[in-house]
Amino acid sequence: MTFPAMADDMATAHPDFWPKAASPLPRDPAIESRIRDVLAKMSIEDKVGQMIQADIKDVTPDDVRQYRLGSVLAGGNSKPPGHPFPDASDWKALSDAFYRASMDASHGRLAIPVLFGIDAVHGHNNLVGSTLFPQNSALGAARDPELIREIGEVTARELRASGISWTFAPTLTVPQDVRWGRAYEGYSQDPAWVAQYAAAVIEGLEGKPGTPQFLDAGHVIATAKHFLGDGGTHDGKDQGDAKVSEAVLRDVHGAGYPPAINAGVQVVMVSFSSWNGVKMAGNRSLITGVLKERMGFDGIVLGDWNAHGQVPGCTNESCAPAYNAGLDMLEAPDSWKGLYKNTLAQAKAGVIPMSRIDDAVTRILRVKLRLGMFDAGLPSSHPLAMASAEVVGSPAHRAVARRAVRESLVLLKNNGGVLPIDPRKRILVTGDGADNISKQNGGWTLGWQGTGLTNANFPGATSIWAGLRTQIEAAGGHAELSVDGVYAQKPDVAIVVFGEDPYAEFQGDLPNLAYRPGNDRDLALLRKLRGQGVPVVAVFLTGRPLWMNREINAADAFVVAWLPGSEGEGIADVLLRNRDGRVDHDFHGKLAYVWPRNALQVTGAIAKDDRPQFPLGFGLTYADRKSMGPLPEDPGVELSSAQAGVYFTRGKPARDFVLNLTGADGMATHVSATPAATADGSLRIGALDYKAQEDARSFHWSAKGGGASNVALVAPAPLDMDRETNGDVLLVTTLKVDALAPDDTSTIGVGCGAGCGGDVPIGRQLAALPRGEWLRVGIPLKCFRDAGADMSKVDQPFEWSSRSAGQIAITDVSLGTVTDRTLTCPAHGSKP
Fold first, then answer.
1. pLDDT band for position 727 (50/70/90)?
2. pTM (2 decimals)?
3. Which residues pair with 301 in a beta bridge?
4. Is-catalytic flag, 551?
5. Which of these is catalytic: 203, 230, 505, 812?
6. What confidence tens digit (pLDDT) does each residue in 770-813 have?
7. Distance (Å, rounded) from C-alpha 469 to C-alpha 572?
8. 413 — phi, psi (to 5°)?
9. How many CA atoms are closer than 13 Å to the CA of 524, on its beta-carbon side?
10. Is 206 an active-site residue?
């Protein structure tokens, strides 16, 4: 099919060239009549409220009552107040509170039930004790649409058991560059597989259209995301620009949307990303022309987390262009009050036409009525919610997840038939992923980044070690756990479990596909055991293919376990024979992503003459007896330890960063060695030990001269930190307070060029910290933005300034989400 020339505008879609789709739900005259009746009673204030979604960290039930908000969400780090690790009862209580507020008809208010949405992306992953499934990149390897449908059903049941009826899933992205930190949210690089899975998972979540089960009390609203092209951004940059033709946008990145609409999906979430330079949240040709008109989508079109603020001419608190492009509801987690005020003014002034407002509200009401919300009663009164203890993490649900683990494992190498393992042998289980349920789940697990967790946070879950030990001991074998590989008696075989640490979104973006560049800890463990004559089985935990040739060479067998979720025993099911010596479960998984030959191969775009190490569809079984020779070990790139978002590490500036001291007299000193001091003696730096020799630095302010002196980290080039600022990312400093006065004047700030910066006063909060104790102390990046910094061009990501006498020590400065203390800062966001 040939597209018209687009010389003037490479980001204008041509709807006639896109496939048609249609909702399988014929318009219900009773629902449409009720929509018209409700719409006629609504004030303009009621309508604008319905078009805004706020986060539970920044909105209360009283706010919903007052502003008549149409929806609330729980972001990745948002919890019911006072419950950092919420169970079903905590979620039910909060959901009931918001529902009651929305249905309060006192003082002439119109009762319209509020929608409550959450990111249940691999099970109900923000619920303690829930069933957690393998992440999507693993499920793609299973190649089993029926399994995907069952996973949708289980997820829906556990959501309903906690009083929530809407998930921001499935992700229908088709990642083409797995340097992207969200690559694991995509089922496959093959659009055909994504299209097959789209209908299956939506039917599981929502029920089959045309049956009594569709959106009944056991199912939830699904969200197809992110429309469109988020998996095709240039260089795999999160929230970046998909520089592709309309044909590629349609045939690759749009493949999952027609089947999703045909399956009855009720919400489509629009992407942060751009297409050929135009932000998706402002692209009317795609949102209205393609999605709504050509594909016949009649549900809610939702914006992503403050994504509208990136549209030219918009801010987080004002964006008529996004509504006019076709978004029906804007996700304004912390900016909703300002957005409400400005949207109301724009509606009254006709900047947003009333016809557009009525269309948006009609779609919102239609979804709520299809879900039966007006007549459903309190979320906690639903049958599954009343039986939540029997539903959440039930044996039947965990059995589905365990099966998903078995089916998704991919065997890349099995030299000498080391697998399957006889469980009656002496087996060493080692590596930092062996007994680490957080690591085997990855991001979007009990928190946005999935970090800062222990096994105790996962009641009912099974680590990989626990699953192996159970089966080995039941067969009469001996299982030994040793994270560092030191054993009491030489084992017959070692299973080494290692891989990526948890991350989500842009925190996982990579410059290349090298695994842990500059850190060969896992490789050394594999080589050490092999050198001791121990057969080695490598079990790799990862959200995406990475360049692993050295590790594959160092192991006798190499298994890609992806991010398998809560049911670690599914790995033992496949790696071990049963107690009678037979194989109950062979390897089933086949690569849904190509595996790179070197660290520079952008896997989704590997040319036919640039062969990958392992192609799509590769995966051995126990019937494959051929041994694999050594793989080439040239990564094609320098294996540097430099990491994005790390500015100061082990007491030294990150690669190419510079550490400067500036005295109270304004004279700057470049620190090339320690000890050092400013010319006026107002600030001194020295070395000290934290976990290793001289891996931290002490800073001593003497308050000479009465002015402020400071220490600053200078970046080699300006850093764009807008994405991180828009999320819940913090500037985290691992520090020790040795001496600070109660009225300390310290500030931490960032610089963005001459006359540009933002400083946050933190002295009094630091002075209250315990003395002599190392702590991770975080400041939200939003604080610096609100203090005046342009976060798109940060040249000094860290500056500590003080006029007071005091002494602190610092070992690390980086971006992160896990802290021991998060400091407060001036409130951000506008008041209505």
1. confident
2. 0.90
3. 268
4. no
5. 505
6. 999 999 999 999 999 999 999 999 999 999 999 999 999 999 99
7. 9
8. -150, 140
9. 8
10. no
